[in-house]
Amino acid sequence: MRKGLLIIVLAGAAAIGGYGTYYRCATAPTHAMLARPDGGMEWLRHEYHLGDAPFSRIQQLHQEYAPRCDLMCEKIAKANARLAQLIKVNKTFSPEVDAAMKECVAVQAECRRALLEHVYVVSAEMSPEDGARYLQMMTARIVEPGLSHQSVISESAK
Amino acid sequence: MNAPDPDDLSARLRTWKVEPQVPGSFQGEVWQRIAARQAGRGEAFWPRIVQWFSTRLVRPPYATALVLLSLSASIGLAHVHAQGAKAKHWKELEARYAASVDPLAMSR
């Protein structure tokens, strides 16, 4: 009887050990990527099968684009804050609110244009199939920023 | 030898009646027996399991099979859970990359 219980305990221990070891090994690469600050770029490399040369060119493009992106982000934040402030102060739709609204739209359009330009340049560094897939994923975000790219594509495909 | 008169035989058969003597406690005793058998089966289940563990499971082939089966099932379950976790991580990384190049996402 004691021997039987020992075998059951052993089987349980093997099950727990097997589960933990397999799960840890299987999720270790994505866990490591998530922990890294440049995990997003590593994801791009794996997802779009980038070799060393195209990846370093894309990294270079990313670094060149980053200051422009930060500047645009600042512009959007300022325009949004100004619009929010004017909406708070004005009780009616005044020309000032209208101008602030137009400024917000203009800044956002400028950002989308710059992003689309960057996306085209990056996709050109990939293989034709991967480039098309990357373009599809990113342009869906530009067309409908609030939606996931699958939902945008499925909607337009209808 | 004379053959029996068929009319006479038919008349006798018509008047013939069978009256079985069933004791009054017959039905009660049947139910008592059924209840006793069912109780016996229920009691025998756990001792049988315990007996199986103490006799069969201790044999090396059974013990090895149980350990291997547990290990395989746990690895299968871990594989399914890991697939889900990896897909979730992948989506997070995709969103992180997209946010790193999208000023609209960064400003939100």
Overview of the molecule:
- The complex is a heterodimer of chains A (158) and B (108).
- Chain A is mainly α and 158 residues long.
- Chain A has 6 helices and no strands.
- In chain A, helix 4 (95-123) packs antiparallel against helix 5 (128-143).
- The longest helix of chain A is centred in the middle third of the chain and has 38 residues, at 52-89.
- Chain A is elongated and about 90 Å long.
- Chain B is an all-alpha fold.
- Chain B contains 4 helices and no strands.
- At the A-B interface, helix 1, helix 2, helix 3, helix 4 and helix 5 of A face helix 2, helix 3 and helix 4 of B.
Sum up the structure in keywords.
heterodimer, A: 158 residues, mainly alpha, 6 helices, 0% strand, elongated, disordered C terminus, B: 108 residues
Considering DSSP H and I runs of 4 or more, what fraction of the residues of chain A is helical?
Answer: over 70%
Number of helices of chain B: 4
Strand content of chain B: under 5%
Structural class category of chain B: mainly alpha
In short:
The complex is a heterodimer of chains A (158) and B (108). Chain A has 158 residues and is mainly α.
Which SSEs are present, and which pair or pack?
The complex is a heterodimer of chains A (158) and B (108).
Chain A: H1 2-35, H2 39-47, H3 52-89, H4 95-123, H5 128-143, H6 149-157
Chain B: H1 6-15, H2 26-57, H3 60-101, H4 103-107
